[in-house]
Structures are given as C-alpha cells and as structure tokens.
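Researcher: Go.
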Amino acid sequence: MPFAEATALVTVEREGVGEARVVTLSGRDPVIELPVKREWAPNAFVSVLAVRGRVGDVQPTATLDLGRPAFKLGIAEVKVGWRAHELAVTVAADRPSYRVRETAQVTVNVRTADGTPLPPGGEVAFAAVDDGLLALRPNVSWKLLEEMMTRRTYNVATSTAQMQVVGKRHFGLKAVPQGGGGGRGMTRELFDTLLLWQARVPLDASGTARLSVPLNDSLTAFRLVAVATAGADRFGTGATTIRSTQDLMVLPGVAPLARAGDAYRTELTVRNTTDAPMDVSVSASVEGLGAELPPAQLALAAGESRVVGWDVVAPDVPELAWTVVAQAAGATDEVRVRQTVKPAVPVRTYQATLVRAAPEIAQAVERPADALPGRGGVDVALGRSLVTSLDGVRRWMSAYPYTCLEQRVSRAVALGDEALWKEVVASFPAHQDGDGLLKYFPTMTQGSDVLTAYVLSVTRAAGLAVPDDVRGRMEEGLEKLVSGTIQRGAPLRTADLTIRKLAALEALSRAGKAKAGLVSTVKVTDPGLLPTSALIDWWSVVHRLRGLKGRDVLLAAADQALRARTTYRGTTIGFSTEERDGLWWLMAGVDANAVRMVLAAVELGAWKDDLPRLVRGAIGRQTRGAWDTTVANAWGTLAVRAFAAAYEKEAVGGRSVVSLEGASSAVDWTAPAPVSLPWPAAGPGRVTVRHDGPGAPWALVAARAAIPVTTPVEHGYRIARTVTPVEVRTPGRWSRGDVVRVRLEVEAQQDMTWVVVSDPIPAGASHLGTGLGGESALLVAEESAGVAPAYVERTFDAYRGYFEYVPKGRFVAEYTVRLNQSGRFVMPATRVEALYAPEVYAEAPVEAVEVAE
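Model: Structure:
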C-alpha cells in the first residue's frame, strides 16, 4: 500500500460479494487478517479498496495536485482446501477373488475427514462395474466432490465513484484476474458389464453399509464404487477391485453381429490359469447353424493360452446361439454366446392392399423377377376393423433403423412399446435445453420448438405419461416461444414463425394451456392462406378454446377452408394445396396432414358423416403398407385406433380361410393371427380369402420380397463410396487387423434438413474415432470434415451420420474402421435419405468384402 494511512473496504467475493468490512490501514503494517471459512472452498477472492483523503499540507499548483484524494484497488485469489467437505469412503470385499456366480459381501464405511460425527441421513450410491468397460472410458461422474470443487471464476464487476473524485476520465475494471474455470457345472452366459446399481443405500449410525454383490459369468475384474453424501455439503468416493477367475477359461471371440451369407472364422481363446499342464477337449455347437462343428484337442502348458476356431457360413436366421465346452481333468468351462444375424438384403413390403372380405376376395400375385428366391411371400392380416390396416405400419416401424428422439417417440406410439417408452422417458432430461425445448439428439446445443410441440401433442393423444416436471418445462418453453420471450431459428431462411407458433398452440391447447391472450399473439386473418398442417392446428385450437372471442366465426372460417381444400381421388384423400404442404423442415407432409385431420375430427366430434370416407381415404394414402414418415405413421396409428374405438362396433365371428396355390391356412376368430404364405413355385398365383360367419372382416394383403440393390438409385441425391487403406499388412488386399477409411461423397440437388447417411461395415469390424481407451487418435486425424453431422451413430453393422441441414451441392462424410475378423462379408446398400421427405433418397450397391487371415 503506497499510503501512510488509508481507509479500506475489504470484501470477500466470488460470483457476488460474500462479506464486507471497513478497516483502517497503516503504511507501516498494511496487513489484514481474515479467518478462512469452509464455504470459501475451493477458492475465493479478497478485494481491498484503499482510499486516502486529501493531504492537507501539500498545496496544489496550476499543473499538479500531489495532495489530491487517491485510491488503490487490489484483488487476491485465495485457494481453499475442501477437507471440511470431504468424506473418507472405504470399500472392502470379504476376499479379493471369486468363482463365477458367487456373491461378494461388501462393506462400505464412511467417516468425516476431520473426525467429527457423521451428520444423520448419510447414504451412498453403489455400483459394481466390469473394469474392462472402465478401461474403455472412465466414469468421471463418480468423482463428485472434485467436480463440485472446480475452481470458480471471479464474476464480480467492481466500480466506484472515487474515480470522479480523483480526476479520472475513463472507466474500467481494476485488477480483475483471468477467468477459468465358472467351472462349476454351469453354462456361462451372463456377461452384463453392470453387476449391481443401488442409487440409495442408507448408512447406519457408525457410517457403515453392507451389500451383497452377485457376480455373473464374466471372468474379469470388477470395480466396486461407493459415492457417499452426508448432510448438505459433504461428499466422498471410495472404490476397490475384485476378480472372478477359474482354473480353465474359455474366452469367446464371437462377433456380436453377422449377416446372412457371411463366410467367416469364429475364434475363441482357451486359457490354463493353473501351475500344471492340461489336456483340453474343446467342442462347439451352434443353434441355428444347421451343421456340426468338429471338436479340437489342445495341450496347454501351465499358464498357457491357445486359440481355437471354426469356419462357418451364417444362415438366414435371426440369431446363432454358440455353446462352447472346454473339458480337462478336474476342470471344465462352458460358455453360451448369442450372435445376431441380419439379412444383407432385407425383406420389405413392396405392395399392400386393404380390402373387405365379404364373403370372398381373390387377388393376383407374383414374385418380382429380381427378388431372391425363398425369401418373403404373401402376408394376409385379418381384422374386425380398419385397425387391420396398421399391420403394415407395425412392420415398417419395427424395422425402422434411425434413432433420433422424434423417431423413438413415434415408434413407441405406433408400436405401443412400453419398454421403448420407458427408455425415451428416462432420456428426456438429457434432451431438454435450458428453455425446456427438446433436442433431436442430446449432444445438440439448442432444442426445437417443432419437435417439442410434436412430442407434447402426440403423447397427449396417445395417453402416454410424461413426468410433470419434464412436461411442465416443455410447455413453458412453448409458451415463451409463442409470446416472443425466446426465439428459435431454423436452418432454412423461411417465413414459418406463424406456422411454428400454431403448432405450439395446438400442443398447449391439449393441456388447457393455450389461453386467449396467448392465442391473440398469432394473427390469422385468412385461414385459407395457411398450409394444411397449420390450418389443422388452428382448427383444433379454436375448437378447444370455447372462451375465445369471435370463436364461432373463426371456427366456421377454419372449417370451411379445410373442407374446401380436401379432395377425394378414388380411394384416397388429398388436398388442393399439396404442392405447398410438404413442409419437411417442420416434419409436416401430406400423409401426416391427412391422418392428423382424421384424428382431429374424431377427437373434436366434427364431420361425423364424412369420417368413414375420410378414414378409408387416409388409409388409401399408404404405400407398401405404411405412410411415408415416422410422424405420419404415429399420427395414423392414433387416428385409426380412435376411429375404430368410436365408430366400428360390428362383430366378426366364424372362420376364415386364406389360400395361395395349394397352400392354405385357417383363421379362428376367437384369436385371429396373421397368415404368411410362400410365393408360388413358378409364375403368377391367386391369393384368396373366404370368410364363413357373421360380419365382414378387413383383409390386408401384403406382397413381401427381398430385392437386392444391383445398380445405383438416385432420387434427388447421388452417392459415391470409396475405401482407402490407412494401415495395412499386405498391400493390395485386406487382412485381419487392417485399418481402412471409407469416404462417402454425396451430391444434393436441393437444400434439405435432417438428412441421414447410412453405410454398412463388415461384420466384426470396429469403428475408430469413438474416443474409447486404447484407440489411436492419429489413425482418424485425417478424416474429412465438410458439413458436420449433428450426431454420428456407430453400430456393429453401420455408420450413420445425421445432418441437421445439408445445402445444395456436394458434401463428404468419412469414417475409419478396423477389420477384426477374416472371411467374406456380404454388404447391404449404402443409403442417403431425407428423413421427412422420404421421396428424396439415393442407394448404391456395395461389393462383398474379403479379409484374409
């Protein structure tokens, strides 16, 4: 301090002023003593503003005033340990090593770091996890206290009028620091990486908890971790490691996935963990393979491991169940592993017809000339109502490969999948942004009002429960959007704010949150000028808001506008405004509009005389047994179910017979089930459905076939695929262990939102660049990054890049894989498509990949 004496304002600051005092400082001893408090952890800032008044015996001159008032400001950071907040946690097992499926007795002890009594209500969160999983990616969330005690930045702006008193003529912050900020006669088949998770385990008065951890069949090390909390501000983490082992081990190397037609070598490792040699017999049986595998004889020295393998060709079955048995004198191990088998050419519905079987129908059918023989056939689903038309929708949605939040919600709605819905609900918090709006993928920074409005509306219509806090934040975010409190842009420069606000109002109106004042912020002067999706939203909002001023006039105008544009074309319905109704960037399309109009009419009790024709017309819009998008299929499922529940009461009984060229199957109406018949052996055939009994059932006749992609298909996109070596053992061919890079070049003919690029990888290959432990960052350093994907999905069978926006022109996607398995691997087609404009897509065939040993 440069003053002989001064008055000082001393403050303790961090994200605000914590405490303040005024003291007198002497230049001979300019020291301030402050007691360090536990709440300062991990750091605090001490600020001293020292002020000296005018020095009376120093007179000013015309050019200099040495005695004028003066001040100095200084700030010092104080780093504070967090021992006062720390809990010492120890985790101990009753022994370090176990056999498979034994139970480890674990004791967790928690005490305070300073020896004071533990606050009441203490508890731990306990997890037992395969250590191999943590080697791939550590779980930093366990270090709770370290995360809470990261260094805090200053975040305080200091200003004072002293600058005016002493003649300063500029403003600014002073001295602001930088910011920062087995072998027991059982088959081993339980290999989950998580043994046990208990979120809340209470501690007793001594700070102890005891748990039983059942081991599974993995021969590995397990990390036992306890995260403790006691009181409002005490935390700690402790861990230990246990192992499961046995004398003779079989370590399977079965790839998690294969494709029908793959010819590959499956290998496993047999290990002798004892100090004595072993003569081991190894046999394998594969359920679903249809062939026997020869046994192998091994002589293993003490501590030795050997590899055993078999060459197989994957059949066209859903999965292969491998059972491997290793036997030696006094030791044995048996392992069962399941391998998923996917078709390289999937069976798809290529034509579907919904007809009424009263009393008999006949339909000519013929297997497509380019379809694979022995695959597919004619499926006939019989039902009492139009709900029968949803059989094709269920197939389409069950096979749908993409996984953004909208698609997962739509699949849960259309399939009635409770397990999938629970997964979706659990993921909602990760998909919400700061305003409560939902994101398509959790890694995105901003949520979408379009997605949020859709999820709110479709879940309300489906009667699916959303947690109150999650739903409340979603509704609050939409209210802010409609009122103009927050804004959300779109990749496309379009004047669509009114359309988006109407979608938000429709979602809010289902919950009674669309008040008249909120609706008045959206001006709809002529509903006939709205696109059909927005017109349906406006029609629904006006229907639900009975207290809306001028409601009758508004409702009549909306009703008239919607009727005027609805057109009937044979067995389908459409809209005269279809050319401007394909708002794919808002997840709106003609199919979705048609089924949403039907659902709105059923829910609101409108157009009762026209409803049967509207429903049949909406179903008539199906192509290959389903509507064009996931959104349309979700809304269509709800619309058909709602109509059937309200209007279809006709009873159907008796017996129906479905036949095709000598093959027939009877349907008992006490428990009707779909019928699948093979294609005729040669040439065309006729499928007939004859019903004997009361009522006239609906029959959905679907022709299904597996047709390979042999030439490129281009509808608005063009895709080219090249594979280049990154690290290879033998130039000119692929070998096991090689690293290759796949380059996908896509030409787009128009701007488009939400485009997915899906490319297959050989069975057994693994992706690089995922950030897992042990991966080389250098091998993926040269991947091209043009249009950045919003999300990348790397699965056992494919690379999928999801692009929120793709401009017209060329863009490139690259990824890198390691070839881990030898053999010849068949490959599905590469595909690029617009998710909400499915008519815009491209496919290109991919040649089989051969990998040498």
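Model: Residues 84-152+183-244 form a domain with the Immunoglobulin-like fold (CATH 2.60.40.1930).
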